[in-house]
Amino acid sequence: MKPSLIVHEICLTLQGESTQAGRLCVLIRLAGCPQSCRYCDTPQARPFDAGRSMSIEEIIAQINPLQCPLVEITGGEPLAQAATADLARALVERGFEVMVETSGSYPIEVLPAQARRVMDLKCPSSGECERNDLSNIDRLTSRDEVKFVLADRKDYEWARDMVRKYGLTQRCEVLFSPVCDRLAPRHLAEWIIADRLPVRLQIQLHKYIWGREAAGV
Questions:
Q1: What are the distances in angstroms from CA 17 to CA 72, 106, 109?
Q2: Which pLDDT score, from 0 to 100, does residue 210 have?
Q3: Max Cα separation, the chain?
Q4: pLDDT value, residue 158
Q5: Considering the chain, what is the average pLDDT of its residues?
Q6: Which of 11, 19, 96, 146 could cross-link 91 (Cys pair, CB 3.0–4.6 Å)?
């Protein structure tokens, strides 16, 4: 039987986060996430039946006409579906530049080495901090990225200490992202500057362009 995935949506958009923010990007949003982050911004994709079953060939047939070399697989939690690694591998083999955004609670080594893995380590305010698989840190390469989504000062201090404890900025790019409408980007910027922390502040670009409730972007 050919592998299939439950796909919530596929759209052509601008990459809203990561070091690739602002680039034209095909977004493949998979359905299903076992976590319940308090600040989840895609609750519509959390149920595992919030989409339709598609084969890898059907997914590629849908994105080929979009003529965009950058593809991001996200969710939900993409690695909660076993065939995500097969999809990423198939896209790499066809010459796409592939990004996979994952919570870091699943082993990331299942993904092809050519994919850019954006690992979202959950901070205390998320309510899912205990699910972080910290053994994934040793699997990071210089092409990967680590993201911390921060809701308050406590989150910032926890993330700052993680960066220092594990030498994350020596491993890969590190992104600090404020939760929309809960932490002002200015406050986060001031904390980063005060601590001389060598991380990148990011905002969710798509929310500033289309609004925080917009879907399909």
A1: 11, 21, 22
A2: 76
A3: 55
A4: 98
A5: 94
A6: 96
User: Would you say residue 217 lies in a domain?
Assistant: no
Q: Which long-range contacts (CB under 8 A, 24 or more apart) does 154-163 make?
A: 154/124, 154/125, 155/123, 155/124, 155/125, 155/183, 156/188, 156/191, 158/123, 158/124, 158/129, 159/121, 159/123, 160/191, 160/195, 160/197, 162/121, 163/197, 163/199
Tell me, yes or no, whether 215 lies in a domain.
no
Q: Which residue has the tokens 């996200």?
A: 74
Residue 122: give its domain's CATH number.
3.20.20.70
**72-81: pLDDT as tens digits:** 999 999 999 9
The token duo for 13 is 């958009």
pLDDT(217) > 70: no
CB atoms within 10 A of CB 36: 11
Residue 193 forms part of a structural domain: yes
**What pTM value is reported for the model?**
0.93
If one counts the domains in the chain, the total is 1
Q: What amino acid occupies position 202?
A: Q
Written as six digits, the tokens of 95 are 């010459």
For 138, the token pair is: 């040793």
- Domain holding 151, by residue range, is 4-210
Both tokens of 18, joined, read 């990561």
Radius of gyration of the chain (CA): 17
